[in-house]
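Customer escalation, tier 2.

The customer says the design service returned an amino acid string that "doesn't look like it belongs to this structure." They asked us to rerun it and document both sides in this ticket. The original structure tokens are below, unchanged.
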């Protein structure tokens, strides 16, 4: 068994776009990053409706899976060292709980811990259009040090498939943690790699 040197918490909430969290876990599978997965109840439903992945398939991609109701999990404590946390996708409900510090699940508690410990929190928020409450909550989290990273497609890469669009977003998310990946077509990178 390979001992992984660093840890990253991956949350999947109930917003549309469960594939982002699934692909993130897949991209991290063969890295030195130990993954800790939390899925909300709504995420399980969204996964079922939007993907061909079973619950078992998704869980198998993670090194550790935590029950979203287990507030005593190690990841609920600041003493559990991690690189940080990604919630992909992040629903407006999860966003609101994190922004207000009113954590009712392990998903929002773990994010709250990441912020209080001044670690990196990346939220792939999924909603449109945005109302004032959504925008205020995003600003609040940004002011606390979190990163709001909506999954916005990069058309300069001329993606040929939905998979390429998803992978680009996942790659940019990994970039935020300085995790090497080959998922991103970088703007004008070829000019500097000769």
């Amino acid at each position: 068994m390979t001992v992984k040197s660093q840890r990253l918490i991956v949350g999947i909430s109930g917003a549309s776009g469960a594939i982002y969290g699934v692909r993130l876990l897949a991209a991290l599978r063969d890295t030195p990053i130990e993954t800790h997965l939390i899925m909300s109840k709504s995420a399980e439903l969204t996964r079922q409706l939007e993907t061909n992945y079973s619950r078992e398939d998704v869980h198998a991609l993670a090194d550790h899976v935590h029950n979203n109701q287990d507030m005593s999990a190690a990841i609920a404590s600041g003493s559990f060292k991690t690189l940080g946390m990604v919630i992909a996708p992040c629903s407006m409900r999860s966003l609101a709980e994190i922004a207000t510090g009113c954590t009712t699940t392990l998903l929002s508690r773990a994010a709250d811990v990441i912020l209080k410990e001044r670690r990196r929190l990346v939220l792939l928020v999924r909603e449109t259009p945005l109302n004032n409450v959504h925008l205020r909550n995003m600003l609040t989290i940004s002011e606390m040090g979190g990163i709001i990273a909506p999954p916005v497609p990069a058309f300069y890469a001329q993606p040929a498939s939905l998979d390429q669009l998803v992978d680009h977003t996942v790659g940019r998310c990994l970039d935020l943690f300085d995790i090497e990946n080959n998922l991103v077509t970088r703007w004008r990178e070829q000019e500097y790699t000769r």
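Tier 2 assessment: The sequence is consistent with the input. Helices lie at 18-28, 41-50, 55-61, 92-100, 106-116, 132-143, 162-175. The radius of gyration is 16 Å. Sent an explanation to the customer and offered a walkthrough call.
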